[in-house]
Amino acid sequence: MKYSLWLALPVFVACSSPKIQEETKAQFQTIGSVERLDSAVNSLISAEAQIEVLASGFEWAEGPLWLQDQQALIFTDVPTNKIWKWTEKDSLSLYLTPSGYLGDRTDKGEPGANGLALDLAGNLILCQHGERQIGKMLASIDAPKPEFEALASEYEGKRFNSPNDLTFNSKGQLFFTDPPYGMDPWDEKELSFQGVYRLDPDGKISLLVDSLSRPNGIALSPDQKVLYIAQSDPEKARYYAFDLDENGNVISGKVLFDATSLQSDSRKGLPDGLKVHSDGTLFATGPGGVLVISPEGKLLATILTENGTANCGFDSEEKYLYMTADGFLMRIALK
Q1: Averaged pLDDT, 25-53
Q2: Residue 116 in 3-state DSSP?
């Protein structure tokens, strides 16, 4: 079910149905609450913090990424094959279309880009569902037609399923997941597993994990020695922690937190996107919204968004956590 918000203030409508409030922070509509389970969360989220709704009307918002040079957040709307841009100053605007599928077929269910990241040179790197590849944006967003370079599209001669989420380390190694969520029924599935991979700067692709049923969100610990992966499997709704060696290879792994029992009719969502705060705390989307989990695997709080929540991300100073929740773009202030 999709939602629309009634806004008492003037709204800006950009290219389609999404809407945004243009006034001050204090006038954003609020939603949900923070369920605090451990006092440790108070050092991250103040008691007065509220979930603000910044924009609405998307099909399924994903992949929030902060652009420091523009003081802007970009995020994907996967079913519509678009990327949107939001700033405190200029509100909402269309950033890029198409974002994932570059062909002419109109009956693809999840064609757009999903996870987004910047490489060490500042290039936009996209998990492109429709093209089943990791792509790098080449042309300016002002060009008549976006151009992309395929950085990774197959493993051992077989096409990926639909790369979903990604993260870079300081060496320029790219870690990404490849579940089948972006595939349509007519797509030919060439791999017999859902993999987690590493793409090295020289173009080499290494399979790191092939045992997860639905690998989805992915992030690194601040010291880059632990790779966190969310598994979007309702039977095993879990977050995993994999230890890495100095070359980025997996040497061991464990279940960090099992959220399977948290699922309910009132707590929508599965483990999906996740990000790691500079202090090591995980902000991981899952049942109810965004789960705040310590590096030791203790659930500290849940940011209850009242919607199935796809992903989240920080601005460069970690002043806010931005959340893409179903048809909404939201945020909550951090300490």
Answers
A1: 93
A2: strand
Please check whether residue 81 is in contact with residue 112, taking contact to mean a CB–CB distance below 8 angstroms.
Answer: yes
Pairwise CA distance, residues 319 & 43, whole Å: 13
Q: Name the token pair of 149.
A: 């370079």
Is this structure's pTM higher than 0.85? yes
Residue 30 counted as domain residue: no
Q: Is 39 helix (H, G, I), strand (E, B) or coil?
A: helix
- Identify the domain containing residue 217 by its residue range: 53-268
User: 55, 68 in Cβ contact below 8 A?
Assistant: no
DSSP string, 128-174: ETTTTEEEEE-S-TTSSS--EEEEE-EETTEE-S----EEE-TTS-E
Buried b (16+ CB within 10 A) or exposed e, 283-315: bbbbbbbbbbbbbeeebbbbbbbbbbbbbbbbb
pLDDT in tens, 216-237: 999 999 999 999 999 999 999 9
127 in Cβ contact with 120 (< 8 Å): no
61 within some domain:
yes
Q: Is 20 a residue whose pLDDT tops 80? A: no
Q: Do 61 and 301 contact (CB within 8 A), yes or no?
A: no
Structure tokens at 272: 């999906």
Which among 233, 280, 287 has a CA at the least distance from the CA of 255? 233
How far is the C-alpha of 187 from the C-alpha of 175, rounded, in Å? Answer: 24
Residue 145: CATH number of its domain? 2.120.10.30
What residues contact residue 255 under an 8 Å CB cut-off, 6+ apart?
A: 238, 239, 240, 241
DSSP 264: B
Q: What is the pLDDT of residues 285-299, one digit of tens each?
A: 999 999 999 999 999
Work out how many domains the chain is built from and give that number: 1
**Of 328, 335, 334, 273, nearest in space to 53 by CA:** 328
Cβ-proximal residues to 248 (8 Å cutoff; 6+ apart), any chain: 169, 171, 173, 175, 198, 200, 206
